[in-house]
Request: fold
Amino acid sequence: MALGWLALALLAMAGGIMAQENGPVQPVPYSHKLHAGDMKLKCAQCHVNPDPGETMTLPKPAVCGACHAGKYDREIKWTRVYEVPSFVYFSHRAHVKAGNTCEECHGPVATRTQLARETDLTMGGCMNCHREKKASIDCTFCHEQRN
Ligand code: HEC
Ligand code: HEC
Ligand code: HEC
Ligand code: HEC
Ligand code: HEC
Reply:
């Protein structure tokens, strides 16, 4: 009996871990491990921060089409993995300029076949790093009339 419960608890835990590793199912099984890991394509080949702007953006169809003509050369509706609510001000430009790396906020992307939120970018997670790196934790730094 005790063993039965233990097995159930372990199954539930495994389920939890699986759920964390499996991000949203994307319309095309694009793999960062293959393209950014094995093939060593640079993040910037697909993610650029347009000037002016604060976002990193997803690749345009032509980027994929360069190697996959006739297959992945049309608009693909990717499901977003990381997103902050509209009442939060967030800038990739400022963070990258301040020396923060993609991996600090998004984990070891180049080793992942499928992306999932694997770091804490809730308010608590933002605050933890801001405390560590001595950036401001004033409410108005991330909220209110900034955007
Ligand atoms: C520099 C060339 C290059 C670029 C750019 C590129 N790929 Fe690939 N991709 C490859 C190669 C090489 C493979 C592995 C060989 C193969 O299966 O065709 C591959 C494999 C894949 C696969 C595995 C299944 C399949 O159909 O082969 C998918 C899905 C895929 N790529 C999607 C994309 C998408 C979407 C983009 C744009 C975001 C993209 N690729 C950009 C070269 C590229
Ligand atoms: C060949 C193109 C390509 C390269 C190179 C590439 N990515 Fe991506 N990236 C994509 C595509 C396509 C998506 C959307 C599908 C997905 O989420 O897996 C994406 C999604 C992401 C996301 C999730 C965005 C969101 O919120 O939905 C992050 C974070 C990311 N990439 C980081 C990186 C980093 C870091 C690197 C370099 C180590 C990198 N990418 C290299 C094509 C690329
Ligand atoms: C300080 C943390 C942080 C760093 C550093 C960071 N990101 Fe992000 N990233 C985020 C957050 C938060 C979001 C969600 C932003 C939103 O919803 O506006 C995001 C979203 C994204 C997206 C989805 C499109 C977008 O701009 O919303 C991509 C792609 C992405 N990041 C790639 C990268 C790449 C590539 C790097 C390294 C050059 C990087 N990120 C560095 C926190 C970070
Ligand atoms: C990995 C560490 C780290 C994480 C995680 C992080 N930040 Fe930051 N943030 C910094 C650093 C370092 C600076 C630069 C501080 C400076 O220049 O004095 C900064 C600056 C900022 C700024 C000022 C930008 C500007 O335009 O000057 C805002 C706003 C901000 N962060 C919001 C956020 C939000 C929202 C999140 C969570 C979604 C977040 N940060 C997550 C390290 C981080
Ligand atoms: C470093 C950036 C940062 C700072 C500083 C910050 N917040 Fe936030 N805040 C966030 C982010 C990111 C979210 C969205 C969290 C999420 O997506 O779960 C958020 C969400 C919220 C929410 C909505 C909560 C919810 O559960 O939906 C409130 C209310 C809030 N913040 C108030 C504050 C107050 C009050 C302060 C000052 C004590 C503050 N924030 C400071 C980044 C920040």
Remarks:
- Confidence is low (pLDDT under 50) at residues 8-20.
- The radius of gyration is 19 Å.
